[in-house]
Amino acid sequence: MDQIRHIRELYYEQGITNISQIAEITNLNRKTVTKYIDMEDFSSPPPEPASDQERESKLNPYKPIIDSWLIADKKAPRKQRHTAKRVYRRLKNEVEGFDCSYRLVASYVSLKKKELIRQKKDDGYIPLEHHPGEGQADFGKADFKENGFYHEGKYLVVSYPHSNGGYLQLNYGENMECLLEGLVAIFEHVGGVPTEIWFDNTRTIVTDIIKGGGRKVTERFQRFASHYRFRPVFMNPESGWEKGNVENKVGYLRRNELVPVPEFKSLTEFNKELLFACDRDMEREHYEHDDLFISDLFRDDKAAFLPLPEAAFDTAAYITARTNKYGQIKLADGRHTYSVSPTYSECEVNVKLTSMTVTIMDSHMKEIVTHKRLYGDYKQTSMDWLPYLKYIARKPRSLRNSGIYDMMPQSMQLFMDSCENSERGRILKVLSELTDRTGFDSALRTVNEAIAMNSTDPDSLKSLYNRLYSDVPVLPPLDDIQTIPDGKIIPFNTIDLKKMDAALKKGGAMNG
C-alpha cells in the first residue's frame, strides 16, 4: 500500500501526469502504474508480491555481493546501472563456484531494487507545503521558427506552487545568459521576486555538490541571487519530484503555448506575447479549489514577493579572447568562430555575451562588431565581411596572400580571378559598399548575377545591384505602335539656321 499511495500521490497531488515518468520514478511498469492510478475501490488489499521461498536459497551466499553492486548503482548514471543479466554474467565470470540459475538471480535483483526504492522513498518523500511567494524553475525543450529559420530551442519556466501559476520564456539555448535574462523578464513582468526559487543541480549554476548537502555555485549566480535577494534552493540529486509543480508546468505550457511549432519574426517580441498569454491562462479554476481561480491565489503570491531592486542587473557575461591570424575568435570550445577584423589579428579583445548576441570590443571597450550568437554542438562560423572587404580594398594586390581570399565563397573567388588586376581595387570597394547597404548576401548574389552575364567591371556590378535591390518600377511597353503619329520631315540646309527657326517657330539665337 505504501507503493500504491506513492503512485497516486505523484499523479494526483504532485501533478505528474506522465505515466512513463511515474513508472521510472517508482521502478514499475506502465501497466502497474496505470492500474493503481485508475483504481477506485481499495476495500480489499492487493495481492502481496511474490517473495523468496522460506527454505534456504542457493543464492544466499552471493546476496551480499549483489547488494553491494546495486547499492553502488545509486551513484551511477541511470543508463549505467546493473540489469539482472549483467549481475548474472558478473557472478559467473567473477565469483568462483557460482552455479545458480539466471531466473533465481533475476527474481532477487527485482526484489532488491524495489526494496532500495522503498528506502529512498522513506528517506526522501516528505509531504511538501508551499507558501505564497515561493517559486520553482526549470528548462524544457521546444523547437521554433524565427524569420523562416528553424531552431532547436529551450524554454525557461518559473512556476509558483501555491497558486499553480507559471510563466515561460523561449531561448536559443540553456546557458547562464538565457537563465538570467529569462528570470529578469519574468520578475519585471509580475512586478516582484520570489522569496526563494527551487532549482535542479544544473551545471549552469552548480559547480559542485558538497558532502552533507551543500552546493558550490558560480560567482555570477551568487551575485544575481544577492542582487534580487531571493534564496536559491537546490534539489537532492535524482529527486525531480521535489519540484513536481514546475516539472508539470513545463509540460503544460509546452502543450498549450508552444503547439504547433511557433513561427514569428522576432524572438524578443514573441517572448513578450508569451508573458501575457500566461497571464490569461491564470483565469481558470485551481485544480484543488473549485471556487477559486489561479489568478486569485496568485495575488497571494504577489503580496509575498520581494520588491524589484532599484538598480538593473547586467546579465551579460564579459570575457577576453585572442584572435587568430585572420582576425577571428573561437568560443564554445572552438566550435563557434566569429569574425572581428583583419586589423585585429593575433591580439586580445574583450567579448560581451548575451543570450542572443556576441559583441567584440577593443581594449577600451569600444565595439568592433556584433554577431548573432551561435548555438549547437557542431562547428559554425559567423562572418561580418564589411571590415575585411574595406581592408583588402586598400590593398587589392595582397588579396591572394591575405587569407581573406581563402575565406571567400567559391563564386566570389571565381569572380575575383576573372577581374582585371587594375580593376580589382575598385571592385572590392564596390562590394564593400553593397555589403554596407544590404549585407554580404546581397553583394554575393550580385556577384553571381555578374558571373552569369560575364560582367567583370565595377559599373556592371552597380547596375546589376540596382536592378536587383532598387525599387525602380519597370515601365510596360507601348501597346500599339500604330498610335504614334508620323513625324514631320522639314528639309533645310544645316548652314541656314533661319529656316530651322522658322519651322520650329522659335526665336533663334535668343532662345539659346
Features:
512 residues; alpha/beta; Nucleotidyltransferase, domain 5; 4 domains; 15 strands; 40% helix
Written account of the structure:
This protein has 512 residues and is an alpha/beta fold. It folds into 4 domains: 2-124, no CATH class; 134-304, Nucleotidyltransferase, domain 5, CATH 3.30.420; 317-384, no CATH class; 388-469, no CATH class. Helix content is 40%, strand content 16%. The chain has helices spanning 2-13, 19-26, 30-38, 63-72, 84-94, 102-124, 176-190, 219-228, 244-257, 267-281, 294-304, 386-393, 404-407, 410-418, 424-438, 440-452, 458-469, 497-504; strands at 134-146, 149-160, 165-171, 196-199, 206-209, 215-217, 231-234, 263-264, 317-322, 328-331, 336-339, 348-353, 357-361, 367-372, 380-382. Strands 1, 2, 3, 4, 7 and 8 form a 6-stranded mixed sheet that branches. The chain has a 4-stranded antiparallel sheet with strand order 9-12-13-14, with no helix packed on it. Strand 13 (357-361) and strand 14 (367-372) form a beta hairpin. Helix 5 crosses helix 6 (102-124) and helix 12 packs antiparallel against helix 15 (424-438). The longest helix is centred in the N-terminal third of the chain and has 23 residues, at 102-124. It is elongated, with a radius of gyration of 36 Å. It starts with a helix and ends in an 8-residue tail after the last helix.
